[in-house]
């Protein structure tokens, strides 16, 4: 959580929505949230301006369509069930239930990061832990690399692995926030790792997001030091809740002004994929320079990045509660969402094999 003036967990819009409805809740919000990690407040007005949604005539790639066809609702449900403690998962060869993934619960977040590490490792990816300091101790992020043929081209597909609730250190299912984003990264890695790309793809999971983006902040600083050729970051945070019968909206937050131009390349690609592959989603793009999620750390470090999130005017009512469980998610929406992100990552990465839409065979004619 970052706080500045009127702040709330994760820089999101709950506080000001309540403020607009019941003025007295402003005082309550200031009392219960308290300071954490200084940052900016997010523009949360219900009538906040949007960018025009840009799109181009993206030609569908049959190889990418083949990738999208592999996204399975049942697998996404299974991943979130394991990450949220509904069922046990195998970590280090033993059965374990992730009742919480809170950064403050050292034993649990260590198991959660080990689980992610082993998932990527099983795909044959080069996996590393990235350590950062947390109140005199250490916590860690997880990063898995899929090298491309061009060493000067790298895209990150990221999400935060940690979660929170009123009893965060003992029980915090965090299914939508943010096992959904992690499951999206898992599935993208499952599928994309089978293919070759021009650009390298890196799958990164952060801890410390709920406390103020600590993990991503440390990671972004280190990739600057390392000179990593990052061309863009797709940050997935809460991508699985949609009220049944409501519009299936995908929200993307990019920087306002000239700084947002490289971000818009990323949001436009997502929109292009939705249109080209006829996914049942509607994209909305908001200008923002605020601290909403881990993409903020990369904005601060000078990298193009976009926050990709469920429509915040229709976000989960179970936000940061014990009711944020896997059965509250909308699987059809979730699945379409993951397809959109996977397709965007694939097109940005540039598959090295392209199968033409139509093959024409000419019969052999003997003379």
Helix-strand blueprint:
Blueprint: H1 14-21, H2 25-33, H3 62-68, H4 73-83, E1 89-91, E2 94-96, H5 106-122, E3 126-134, E4 137-146, E5 154-160, H6 175-192, E6 200-206, H7 214-226, E7 230-236, E8 249-254, H8 261-276, E9 282-287, H9 295-300, E10 305-310, H10 331-349
Parallel strand pairs: 5-6, 5-7, 7-10, 8-9
Antiparallel strand pairs: 1-2, 3-4, 4-6, 8-10
Attribute tags:
10 helices; 2 domains; 10 strands; disordered N terminus; alpha/beta; 367 residues; eight-stranded mixed beta sheet
Walkthrough of the structure:
The protein is an alpha/beta fold. The termini are far apart. The chain has 2 domains: 1-39, no CATH class; 49-349, 3-Layer(aba) Sandwich (Aminopeptidase). Helices cover 34% and strands 17% of the residues. The radius of gyration is 20 Å and the shape is globular. α3 (62-68) packs antiparallel against α10, α4 (73-83) crosses α6 (175-192) and α8 (261-276) packs across α10.
Summed up:
The chain is an alpha/beta fold and about 375 residues long. The protein has ten helices and ten strands.
| Helix amount | 25-40%
Q: Which structural category do the helix and sheet elements fall into?
A: alpha/beta
**Uncertain runs with pLDDT below 50, 5 residues or more?**
1-46, 355-367
Q: What would CATH call the homologous superfamily of the largest domain? A: Zn peptidases
**Oligomeric state of the chains present here:** single chain
Strand content: 15-25%
The DSSP helix count reads 10
Strand neighbour order, sheet with most strands: 3-4-6-5-7-10-8-9
Tell me the CATH topology of the largest domain.
Aminopeptidase
């Amino acid at each position: 959580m970052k706080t500045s003036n009127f702040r709330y967990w994760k820089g999101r819009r709950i506080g000001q929505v309540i403020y607009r409805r019941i003025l007295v809740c402003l005082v309550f919000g200031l009392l219960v949230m308290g300071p954490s990690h200084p940052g900016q407040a997010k523009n949360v007005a219900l009538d906040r301006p949007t960018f025009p949604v840009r799109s181009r005539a993206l030609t569908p790639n049959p190889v990418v369509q083949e990738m999208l066809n592999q996204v399975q609702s049942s697998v996404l449900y299974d991943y979130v069930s394991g990450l949220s403690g509904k069922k046990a998962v195998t970590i280090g060869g033993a059965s374990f239930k992730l009742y919480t993934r809170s950064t403050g619960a050292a034993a649990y977040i260590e198991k959660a990061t080990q689980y992610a590490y082993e998932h990527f490792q099983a795909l044959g990816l080069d996996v590393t832990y990235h350590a950062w300091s947390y109140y005199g101790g250490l916590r860690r992020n997880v990063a898995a690399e899929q090298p491309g043929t061009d060493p000067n081209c790298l895209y990150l597909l990221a999400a935060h692995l940690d979660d929170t609730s009123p009893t965060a250190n003992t029980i915090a299912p965090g299914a939508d926030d943010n096992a959904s984003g992690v499951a999206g990264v898992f599935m993208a890695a499952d599928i994309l790792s089978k293919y070759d790309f021009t650009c390298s793809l890196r799958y990164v999971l952060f801890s410390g997001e709920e406390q103020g983006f600590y993990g991503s902040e440390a990671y972004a600083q280190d990739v600057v030091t390392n000179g990593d050729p990052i061309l863009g970051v797709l940050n997935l945070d809460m991508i699985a809740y949609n009220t049944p019968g409501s519009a299936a909206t995908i929200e993307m937050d990019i920087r306002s002004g000239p700084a947002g131009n490289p971000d818009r390349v990323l949001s436009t690609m997502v929109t292009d994929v939705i249109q080209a592959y006829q996914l049942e989603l509607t994209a909305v793009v908001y200008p923002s320079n605020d601290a909403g999620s881990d993409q903020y750390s990369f904005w601060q470090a000078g990298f193009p990045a976009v926050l990709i999130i469920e429509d915040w005017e229709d976000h989960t009512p179970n936000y940061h509660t014990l009711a944020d469980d896997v059965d509250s998610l909308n699987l059809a929406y979730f699945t379409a969402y993951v397809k959109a992100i996977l397709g965007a990552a694939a097109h940005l990465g540039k598959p090295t094999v392209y199968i033409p839409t139509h093959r024409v065979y000419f019969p052999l004619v003997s003379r």
